Amino acid sequence: MKQQLRSIDKSASANNPFERQFARLKHDVLGRKVKGVEGKPMAQRKKAEENRKKTLKVEMAKKNRVGGLVDRRFGENNPNLSMEDKLMERFMREQKGKSSRNSSLFNLEEEDLTHMGQSISGMDDYSLESGLQRVEDEEGNIDRDTVKYSHFGGFDDDPDPDRKKTKSEIMAEVIAKSKFHKHERQKLNEEVQQLGEEVDENLDDLKSLLLGTGGAKKEEAKPERPWRKPLTSQEEDYDNFIREMRGDARAAPTNRLKTEEEKAFEEKEKLEKMEAERLARMNGPVKSGKKRNAQADDLDDDFGFAQTMPVKKRGGRSKKGGDEGEEDDEDEEEEDDDPRGRNAMPLTYNKDGMLVNKEVFMMKRKPKKGETDEDDGGVDNEEEDDDEEEEYDEDDEDDEDDEEEDGEDGEDDENGNVEAEDDLEEDDAVELNGEEAVDVSADEDDEEEEIDEAAVAAQRAEAQATIPYTFAAPTDHAELLAYVDHLNPTDQAIVIHRIRVLYNAKLGGLNKSKLETLLRVLFDHLQYLTRKSPPDLDTVNALSKHLHELCVQFPQIAAEICIRRIKKLHATIQTAVDKSSALPWLDDIVLLKLVGTVFSVSDFEHVVGTRAQLLMAEFLVMCPATNGRQALSGIVLCQVLKEFVKTSKRYIPEVISFLHSLLDALHPSSSTNKNLSITSLSAPPMDLDLKTLLAKPATTTKKVEQHPSFKTDAFKAALLATVTNVIGQFVRIYSDASGFIEIFTPLLEKLEGYATLFQTANKKKSSKPSEALTNAFKVNIDIVKGLLASGKLKRKPLLLQKRKAMAIRTFVPKFQEHYSMDRRFDPNRERAKVKKDEAEYKKEFKGAMRELRKDGKFIARQRLEERKEKDAVYKKKMDRIMGDLANLEGAMRGYERMNKK
Amino acid sequence: MATDITAIAKEALASKKGLPGIAQLLDLMLLDQNRKHSTIHAAAAAASHVFSKLIERGDFRVVPTASEPEKKVLAWLKDHLEVYTDRLADLLSCDEPALQTFSVDCFLKITRAESTALALAEKNSAEWTFGNSTYLKFVRCLCSKKSSSASTTDLTRHVLGLLNSWDDLKLYFFRNLEKVCKTHAPQIDISIVFDILSQLQPFEELTGDNWVTAEGLGAKKAASIAASKKRKRPANDDEFDDDNDEDDEEDSSKIPPQSKGAHKRACSEAWLGYLKIPMTVEIYKKVLLVIHKTVIPQLTQPTLLIDFLTDSYNAGGAISLLALNGLFTLIHEHNLDYPDFYTKLYTLLDETLLSVKYRSRFFRLLELFLSSAYLPSYLVAAFAKRLSRLALRASPSAIIIVIPFVYNLLKRHPAVITTIHRFDVEDVTDENTDCFIMSENDPAKCRALESSLWELQTMTQHYLPSVSALARVFQDPLTKPAYEIEDFLDLSYDTLFELEAKKPMPEEIPMAPVTRDVRGELFFDGVISF
Question: Which residues form the CCAAT-binding factor domain (chain B) (predicted)?
Answer without folding.
Answer: 320-471
